[in-house]
């Protein structure tokens, strides 16, 4: 195990990648092992223990109803924690430690999932022994997988330094693709939303904000026929904005930017894209709102041409600030 820890730490520092883990079966054992690596504070963003199914659904965006002992679940766990913690590479564990079977799954059935810039994938493992032995083998296999992935990233990084063709850099909004949001994005959008609104929760001293309490099914329903957009880089959704048409009015909401991408211009780019979709749908005016204490949001919206129209007092004593912007018709845009 010590060799795997050393390999991972050395490769992570060389490749300058951020690593995260999501655990069900191993219940924190993997994170504590990863954290033993040299200078882990520089490359290990953290881990999430999603032992109960509800935690998998609500925190990491795993779709409700899927088998929690499956490759699909392992992939969604990895993708969710990668987005939530702003990592480049993430690995997950889920399975049956024993001693008894779990439904049709025999003891020792373990799925390892991973997520990186290329997408998500999984690996099925079958381990022998009692529960403790299965857990130990799972952690070792996950560490080997993580080291393998990070070493691959380090090799790619070295190849670029040696003169291999370099991809577009993520400077500003360069390297970011903005596309219409889809219903299938719901899990990743929910995970992103929760990560993005943590700072707002601190400002308002409340974790009962709708962006933090929404369920996966509610988000999925909102994304049906939505005029919103997502920003994608390296296969990861790093920004999202939802919008819907109400007559001639485009109602914009839930603008969420990954914490590690804030300040790079994604908010403005998303608003531009959503407004363009609104124009094409026949909207003549856009409306959005934010709390009166959200000074950064207010500055962004004003820079993008929105002007305050009214303030509405909330039951909690916080005012909601509504801002509007006139949208030119598509034929008027040059």
How is this structure best summarized?
This protein is of the alpha+beta class. The protein is 40% helix and 25% strand. It contains twelve helices and twelve strands.
Task: Walk me through the structure.
There is one protein chain. This protein is of the alpha+beta class and 334 residues long. The chain contains 12 helices and 12 strands. Strand 11 and strand 12 form a beta hairpin. The N and C termini lie far apart (61 Å). About 4% of the residues have low confidence.
What is the number of helical segments per DSSP (H or I, 4+ residues)?
A: 12
Radius of gyration: 22 Å
What structural category characterises the helix and strand content? alpha+beta
Spans of at least 5 consecutive residues with low confidence: 158-172
Question: Helix and strand string, N-terminal first?
Answer: HEHHEHHEEEHEHHHHEEEHEHEE
Mean pLDDT: 87
Intertermini distance = 61 Å
Shape: elongated
Give me some keywords for this one:
single chain, 334 residues, alpha+beta, seven-stranded mixed β-sheet, five-stranded mixed β-sheet, 12 helices, 25% strand, elongated
Topology diagram in text:
Elements: H1 2-15, E1 19-23, H2 29-34, H3 40-43, E2 44-49, H4 53-60, H5 71-85, E3 89-95, E4 109-116, E5 119-126, H6 131-161, E6 177-180, H7 186-196, H8 198-204, H9 210-213, H10 216-223, E7 229-233, E8 236-246, E9 249-257, H11 266-280, E10 285-291, H12 295-303, E11 307-313, E12 319-326
Parallel strand pairs: 1-2, 1-3, 9-10
Antiparallel strand pairs: 3-4, 4-5, 6-7, 7-8, 8-9, 10-12, 11-12
């Amino acid at each position: 195990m010590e060799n795997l820890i050393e390999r991972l730490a050395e490769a992570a520092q060389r490749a300058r990648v951020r690593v995260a883990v999501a655990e069900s079966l191993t219940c924190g054992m993997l994170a504590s092992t990863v954290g033993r690596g040299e200078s882990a504070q520089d490359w290990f963003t953290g881990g999430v223990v999603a032992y109960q199914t509800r935690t998998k659904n609500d925190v990491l965006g795993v779709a409700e109803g899927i088998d929690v002992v499956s490759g699909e679940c392992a992939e969604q766990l990895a993708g969710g924690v990668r987005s939530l913690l702003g990592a480049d590479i993430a690995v997950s564990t889920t399975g049956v430690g024993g001693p008894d079977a779990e439904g049709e799954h025999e003891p020792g059935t373990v799925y390892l999932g991973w997520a990186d810039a290329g997408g998500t994938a999984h690996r099925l493992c079958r381990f022998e022994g009692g529960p403790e032995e299965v857990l130990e083998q799972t952690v070792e296999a996950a560490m080997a997988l993580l080291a393998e992935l990070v070493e691959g990233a380090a090799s790619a990084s070295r190849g670029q330094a040696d003169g291999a063709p370099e991809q577009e850099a993520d400077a500003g909004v360069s390297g970011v693709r903005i596309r219409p949001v889809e219903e299938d994005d719901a899990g990743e959008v929910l995970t992103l939303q929760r990560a993005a609104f943590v700072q707002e929760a601190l400002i308002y001293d409340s974790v009962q904000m709708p962006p933090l309490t929404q369920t996966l099914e509610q988000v999925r329903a909102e994304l049906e026929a939505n005029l919103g957009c997502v920003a994608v880089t390296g296969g990861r959704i790093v920004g999202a904005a939802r919008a819907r048409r109400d007559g001639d009015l485009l109602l914009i909401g839930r603008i969420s930017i990954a914490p590690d991408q804030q300040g790079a211009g994604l908010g403005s780019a998303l608003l531009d894209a959503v407004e363009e979709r609104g124009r094409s749908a026949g909207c003549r005016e856009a409306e959005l709102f934010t709390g009166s204490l959200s000074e950064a949001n207010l500055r962004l919206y004003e820079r993008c041409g929105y002007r305050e129209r009214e303030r509405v007092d909330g039951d909690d004593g916080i005012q909601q600030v509504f801002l509007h912007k006139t949208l030119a018709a598509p034929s008027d845009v040059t």
